[in-house]
Amino acid sequence: MRAVSYLLTNMKPPRLAWAITGSGHYIEECLEFALGLEDVDLYLSQAGEEVLKMYGISLNDIKTHVPVYRDKAASAPPVGLFYKGYYHTFVMAPTTSNTIAKCVLGIADTLVTNLYSQAGKCRIPSIVYPCDIAPAMETTAPGNKKVMVYPRPIDLDGTARIRQFPFTEVVESVDQLKDAVLRRLATLA
Question: Which residues pair with 15 in a beta bridge?
Fold first, then answer.
């Protein structure tokens, strides 16, 4: 009984888990917002790490602000933290169409897809910012160059399908992302 009491009184408040995949879609804005929040852990897919480098974002600089978990183990050990009440919310922003497709099909073979799966199984809300949300979109390429992209119908279908998942809120812009996260944090305060 003493051990349980000690754990309950010394347990830190739940944190926010934030995942970045291999999408550069407003990655700098997403990351800037995430780093400005308190009690955030950052999760990076292997492609997410590559994209950070392409955009000139230093992983070492990020590590000075938040704990960073990288996709280096087959079983994705950090997902167990959802079962321990360590996280109150899971954010995937920005999210590639590849990650969205895997999540929609129930494939949890990477750190990020496994996090989404386990958050859902634990009924922990997820906020998802897909990179493919409209038939024609402007995005920022490396070098801060604005470019037009034209998502395929299958990519847009994945986005439409993930909107139907329980405990999942899909946002379509950085402003909507900020709104959704701040709204979620306000409900926990």
Answer: 87
What residues have CB less than 8 Å from 150, skipping those under 6 apart?
Answer: 135, 136, 137
- Identify whether the C-beta of residue 128 lies closer than 8 Å to the C-beta of residue 186: no
Residue 55: both structure tokens together: 């955009």
Confidence tier at 123 by pLDDT (50, 70, 90): very high
- In the block, which residue shows the tokens 């979620």? 184
Which helix H or strand E contains 138, and what residues bound it?
A: strand 137-141
In this predicted structure, what is the pLDDT of residue 4?
A: 37
Closest listed residue to residue 170, CA positions, set 94, 68, 62: 94
The answer to whether 118 and 83 are in contact (CB under 8 A) is yes
Domains in the chain with CATH codes: 14-188 (3.40.50.1950)
Q: Which of 44, 21, 181, 173 is nearest to 101 (CA)?
A: 21
Task: Give tens-digit pLDDT for 35-58.
Answer: 999 999 999 999 999 999 999 999
Whole-model pTM: value is 0.90
List all residues 6 or more positions away from 187 whose beta carbon is below 8 Å from its beta carbon. Answer: none
